[in-house]
Every structure is written in C-alpha cells, then in structure tokens.
C-alpha cells in the first residue's frame, strides 16, 4: 500500500531506476520509445499497444484524448528517470505509470530477449508541497545530466522545451509564467543546479571527514 495519496492538481516528483541499477536506455531507440509511451499512454481510454495505435487515425485519436496527467518536466538517464507530474483525474498518476512501466518493459524485454522486471519495484513518489520546491526541482530534473556528468547523447530531458519556450509535450506554464521570458528561466535553472552541485560536493566532503580514522 503506497503511503502517499495522489490528489488532482497537486504536483509530484516521480522516479525509479533499473533493477540492480542496470541501464534501461541502451540506445537512441530506447529513449524515443519511452518518450513515445509517455505521450500515447497518457490517455484515459486504453489504446492497446503502441504498434496497434500506429494504425489508427491520429486526428480522431487526438480529439478523444483525456489526459491522465500533466507532464511538467522529465529527464531520462541511462539507468533511471525523473518526472514531475500533476494528476488530472482520479488515480491518473498510478494508471499512467502502470501503463508506462508495463509497456516499456515489454518492448525492452522483446528487443533484448530478456524476461522479468526492468525497474526496481514500484515507482517512488514525493509530494511537491511548495512553489519554491517546484521551481528548484524543475531545474534539477531538466539539468540532471549536469548533476550526474552524463553526456548529452546518453540523456534526454525537457530542457530544450523550456529554453526555447515552444512546442513539446510538457505543461510548462506553471513554471515559465513566473519568468518574463525563457532566457530568465534558463539563468535561474543554471544557477540553481550550480548551487545543488556545490551543496552535494560539500556534503560528500563532510561525510568523508566524519568517517576518517
């Protein structure tokens, strides 16, 4: 039984990693498959498989979409992901994450001829209980590659959606409306991730000193 209760309109940090810390995105196709799943499984009405859905009329489908969640920001690292979600309908986050996890795991296992779980148990969730938390978490998620020193080809995030202020599948208004223009958000996010990394470095140095003999 999950302790946290998902409430419509609230914001949540959702994250998980590969079982045994294994990589879950091994090439560009894996990244694109997960992002496609995020878009197409975000529908109150079941769509079946992505393969079956590819044969349907996209115009008619778009008119029938009732989103389960708003995706505010995301990042995909080689062995884990972070999402910022806001629930639109009752049980929306749980349903969305179930479809996303199950669909991607089935595709991954078929492609790489493996079986069993791909992710480490149930996804983790934290309630984002303040605007300040939301703003700083968006910076951490969008620029997560800097936190882990990951090369751009091995990483995907909503950063470009935020910095050019155009298109994409994310619901960015809750963040960007607090800045006069996307470039101001870019400055804020880059400063915020720098502070996060400095605090992380300080924590590691203190921890090392505490365990010195």
Radius of gyration, CA atoms, in whole angstroms? 18 Å
Biggest sheet descriptor: 5 strands, antiparallel
CATH third-tier fold name: Alpha-Beta Plaits
Mean pLDDT: 89
Query: Which secondary-structure class do the elements indicate?
Result: alpha+beta
C-alpha end-to-end distance: 42 Å
Please bin the fraction of helical residues: 40-55%
Order of strands in the sheet with the most strands?
4-1-3-2-5
Describe the model.
The protein is of the alpha+beta class. It is built from 9 helices and 5 strands. The protein starts with 10 loop residues before the first strand and ends with a helix.
Short structural description:
The protein is 47% helix and 14% strand.
Provide the fold topology.
Layout: E1 11-17, H1 28-40, H2 50-53, H3 58-64, E2 69-76, E3 80-87, H4 92-112, E4 124-128, H5 131-142, H6 144-148, E5 156-157, H7 159-164, H8 173-176, H9 182-210
Antiparallel strand pairs: 1-3, 1-4, 2-3, 2-5
Helix pairs in contact: 1-4, 5-9
For the structure shown, list the relevant keywords.
5-stranded antiparallel sheet; alpha+beta; 213 residues; globular; 9 helices; Alpha-Beta Plaits; 14% strand
